[in-house]
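Risk register update: the risk that structure generation would not scale has been downgraded. Supporting records follow, first protein first.
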Amino acid sequence: MERGFKPNPKNSRRAFSFVDLLMIMAALAGITFLVLPVIARRHARSSKISCTNNLKQVGLAYRQWAIDNGDKFPMSVSVTNGGTMELAENGIVWLTFAVMSNELNTPKILFCPKETNPKRVIATTFAQFVAVGQTGAPFAGNTNVSYFVGLDADETRPDTILSGDDNFLVSGAEPKSGVLLLWTNSQVAWTKDRHVNQGNLALADGSVLGLTTPMLKKTLVKTGAATNRLAMP
């Protein structure tokens, strides 16, 4: 009489169960939960670094322009003498950067990588028109700019504000295009959508500061001006 076949437990394969699937899915979800914030922080940090580099190039362009114009920035030189004083004081920001087009080389650096305003468009050329058959956007207005112009910036006063991110909240509201007046006691803060409650400022000495809201307020005081005038795009 033949003996009944008995499977060897060591050679048998356990079926892949629904419980196993749930355990794997839970493990993957846990890994995703841990990894995604790290990736997001790295992306935010990378974008902030790119914005800082943009403003460093902007600051350098200002200083190069000033060398050829009596050590004055464009917003301190009248239009009749090749500057943009009257225009900037009326909130026409883009033309201040346009007169420095030779120093800036490309308008792309005037657009923050974390810009969230859907009405703004990155320009690819300082020309105000794009030839038929060519791609890209011309530099033709405030909508091509993410950075403000500091109307009171002065090379002889290194702590004055030259430019920077325009994502402010003043008394809880976002300022409109035009000239923004900030006093030392103004209720000013950064919005959270661009650099997560932080922002960058370029100073007249060419330095760029990454600032939290409390640091921003201290920087406004440090300029020594009772009123800081910023032309907002």
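Supporting record for the second protein:
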Amino acid sequence: MTGRPPVPTHLKIIRGNPGKRKINNREPRPVGDLKEAPAYFDDELRDVWTYAIENAPQGLLKKVDSSVLETWCCAHILHRRASQQVRQFGVLVKSPKQEVPIQSPYLPIMNKQALIMLRCVDHLGFSPASRSRIAMGDAPLSGAGAWDDIATG
């Protein structure tokens, strides 16, 4: 997909639909707050999951977001482990055969996991930039609510 990501319907309504594009009155509204970590998570992953759930805005993460949060948690742990190895052994290490300095094998792992985490935080609303694009009302968006009244009004 190219171009800017689509603006959620409720944001178009709040902003007055400046682009005058058709409002999607049938936009899906996920239900079920995300709470419990997956059963296969170990204690370390479960701690990261719990941290994310406790520090995300209440009601933001829904059950449908679980796969993105799982990916973020796994990438977070792998990034942490690789970072610890880079700190311990340095960015450059001696190659085993020629004993010349080479890049640490943990550095690409650390960088790849950082990229994965950055992609996930944008979807989950964990970064300051992504949070600025989220507007949460007092009323839930499921069923007939305040947004439905505004959209049909």
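Residues 78 and 113 are 7 Å apart (CA to CA). On this basis the risk owner (M.S.) recommends closing the item.
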